Amino acid sequence: MLQCIAGCNRRRITARRERNGTTNALMTGMQFWMDTNAYASRTEHSPIKSVQLGCMDTVTSPEANDFEDTIEGLIFVNINETEQHPIRYIVQWKQRTYDGSPTGENGWITASIESEPIFKVKGMLPVMQYKFMVTAVGPGGRLGGPVMSDWAQSLTVDHKLHAPVGPLMITTQYNNEDGLSALVNWYHSPYQQKPPPDISDDRLMSFGNCHYSITVLNETSRETLLFTLDNGNGILISNLQFSTEYSVALRSISSERIDLSLSQQRNVSHEGDTTPEPVKNLEAMVNSNGSVIIQWVPPSEPNAILVYQLLYQSLTNHYDCDKDPSSIYINAGSTTATIQLHSRTHCEYSIKLINYDLIGREASTEIIIWYRPDTHSFKSNLIYIYPILMLISIIISLKCCICLCCSNTSSDRSMLLSSCSKKDTVTIL
């Protein structure tokens, strides 16, 4: 039998540790919270520049037996450019009522710990005043002291949607990532109301809505985007076309409809992932003068069409037929087009209509037509041209004969006159 020098099936040596209960964990955490940052009570050392309630919406309960209507909003935490970037944000709040003077103010209540500088606040009561306090936390503890927002009064239950404040400000730009783009912004930041005389130390703010719909359209396309307000400068619309005039419309969307609208938008996007449909009932009416009137019925999703392209080319191998292919682009809202053929003989033509969707995919429909130019007018003209040509030929021949006769007569007369002249001269001498 082999001897186990180091020991067979050695037992792991472990040390018993005392279980750390919730009470000890709470005390340890509080001590860490108090001791880890020497500047914890000084706001100027916080990476947070400011805290503000950026927007509000009224949330209506879908069922009568559900909770009463409440107010929700978005908190924006503005961060300074600092090396100590927070990894968590401790959010606290308090409220008060106002009936001529502020009353019923409660103490600070810790609400949540957030990981992003933008977060949603739910369950605010209508027509109450709220203040929020945010503390930045890093790996080593607190980063400076807490930063508070201004007092903000929540909306009423029957609050109507706010139209965007002021004119839309649009700035165009170009880069490799977004192509030609436009930054659309407006005055969505909270605007100051005149504070009551007895609370002049605080500023009451009024707010716009949190959810918006923006529509961008030109002559060939229309696009609608749904978005939620953030702490940026606006919304960026990318991949625009050069030398194109656009119209931009912005409107507010209620919080009850935003989920449904986003769901519908996802469905539209899913439908847009399928192959586009070609046009229906493509027809062409050929006139004797060479003009061709083409008409069609758009596909079932006409809003997904970016532009039409009409291609036509002769299939007849004849020198009088237009062998070179021709192409024209047609507005997405059109259902008719006119082309002009210039062949001088009977020619067969192929006409293809291609519709492109918003991402460049295509579908096409093709028809074959015959063009027979009107030759009756040309033949009827020959009936009059031939007699005229014969008459002109006869007139020219007669004129030539007359000229020859006149030339011979003039020659004989000159000889007679010459002889008479000589006789007279001899008589005088």
UniProtKB/TrEMBL annotation:
<feature type="domain" description="Fibronectin type-III">
    <location>
        <begin position="276"/>
        <end position="360"/>
    </location>
</feature>
<feature type="domain" description="Fibronectin type-III">
    <location>
        <begin position="59"/>
        <end position="143"/>
    </location>
</feature>
<feature type="transmembrane region" description="Helical">
    <location>
        <begin position="383"/>
        <end position="406"/>
    </location>
</feature>
<dbReference type="InterPro" id="IPR013783">
    <property type="entry name" value="Ig-like_fold"/>
</dbReference>
<feature type="domain" description="Fibronectin type-III">
    <location>
        <begin position="164"/>
        <end position="259"/>
    </location>
</feature>
<keyword id="KW-0812">Transmembrane</keyword>
<protein>
    <submittedName>
        <fullName>Fibronectin type-III domain-containing protein</fullName>
    </submittedName>
</protein>
<dbReference type="InterPro" id="IPR003961">
    <property type="entry name" value="FN3_dom"/>
</dbReference>
<dbReference type="InterPro" id="IPR036116">
    <property type="entry name" value="FN3_sf"/>
</dbReference>
<keyword id="KW-1133">Transmembrane helix</keyword>
<keyword id="KW-0472">Membrane</keyword>
